[in-house]
Write a structure and sequence with these properties.
GO molecular function, one term: methyltransferase activity
Helix content: 25-40%
CATH class: Alpha Beta
Structural class: alpha/beta
Shape: globular
Radius of gyration: 19 Å
CATH superfamily: Vaccinia Virus protein VP39
Low-confidence stretches: none
Pfam family, one: Methyltransf_12
Number of domains: 1
Protein name: Methyltransferase
CATH topology: Rossmann fold
Largest sheet: 7 strands, mixed
Keywords: Methyltransferase, Transferase
Number of strands: 7
InterPro entries: Methyltransf_12 (IPR013217), SAM-dependent_MTases_sf (IPR029063)
Bound molecules: S-adenosylmethionine
Length: about 270
């Protein structure tokens, strides 16, 4: 029940941010670009018949892949109906994807209610909001067609390193999603093959407030399940401490992005 309530809040916050999302999401845009290239390379000899996208947002990844897989049947989903509307609108502005068969659906990617199998399941920067990342991925792998590919990015451990360290030093319990160590999580999986690589992206801000505002503007400011926001006085001290970590008048936020490719085709035994 509490989880349902939390997810409704998450969807609402992303919905409110949907219109302005693209003004403040350079990291997400760059990550979508790299993920799209990885997918195209991986599927260069195997055009997917059916594609499922999870957490489409405003459609950064969708728009990068659609022209390339324009003959596929697409199911494009997000937990926020407002994000879906913006995604739909953005796609309608693209001239080269008119012929594609696209179905839009409001759906929680952790509890997919879909039938049939998919040759490609993809997602950019949404899985960090899952409560059970590994369990959800295992569920999604079962939706893959033989030799299908599940390709996603998520925020890895170490993201917002300095901000987290400041909270630790002030004995403040960290708010927001828990960034798991993706490599450790998949260190002993033998049901499907997993390929992970990690890349750091940096975003500079004028102040700690600017950093927090940038998260709010894209809707990524939900506290974790069952957490209350930091009290205003404590937050002011935390922002001051965060700013004191930098000497040139800007603050730096690091995004550790894991690019994960899962395939239900197991590696050849030797
Ligand atoms: C940071 S945005 C990324 C959006 C887009 N994929 C991009 O590359 O810009 C995260 C998106 O994931 C969606 N989301 C969060 N949790 C989700 C869930 N459990 N199932 C489906 N979508 C979810 C949000 O509504 C939001 O649109």
């Amino acid at each position: 029940m509490i989880e349902k309530h939390w997810k409704e809040g998450l969807a609402r916050r992303f919905g409110v941010a949907a219109e302005r999302y693209e003004q403040n999401s350079e990291v997400q845009q760059n990550s979508a670009k790299i993920l799209a290239e990885l997918i195209k390379k991986h599927l260069s000899s195997h055009r997917p018949l059916r594609i499922l996208e999870i957490g489409c947002g405003t459609g950064y990844l969708t728009r990068r892949l659609l022209p390339f897989f324009s003959k596929s049947e697409w199911v494009v989903t997000d937990i926020s109906s407002d994000m879906i509307k913006i995604c739909q609108h953005n796609i309608s502005l693209e001239n080269n994807v008119k012929a594609t068969e696209i179905h839009f659906k409001v759906m929680d990617g952790e509890t997919p209610d879909l039938s049939g199998s998919f040759d490609l399941i993809c997602s950019n920067m949404a899985f960090q909001w899952f409560h059970d990342l590994k369990g959800s991925v295992e569920k999604l792998v079962t939706l893959l067609a033989p030799e299908g590919l599940l390709a996603f990015t998520t925020l890895d451990t170490g993201t917002f390193d300095c901000w987290n360290r400041c909270q630790q030093e002030m004995a403040i319990h960290r708010r927001g999603p828990h960034f798991v160590d993706v490599t450790t999580l998949w260190s002993n999986t033998d049901q499907y093959s997993v390929d992970i690589h990690r890349q750091t992206f940096l975003q500079l801000h004028n102040s700690a407030l600017d950093f927090l505002r940038s998260l709010k503007e894209i809707g990524a400011h939900s506290s974790g399940l069952g957490q209350t926001p930091i009290a205003p006085g404590q937050l002011r001290s935390l922002m001051k401490k965060y700013e004191s970590c930098f000497t040139d008048g800007t603050v730096e936020a690091n995004y550790e992005i894991a690019f994960v490719l899962c395939s239900n085709k197991l590696p050849q035994q030797v």
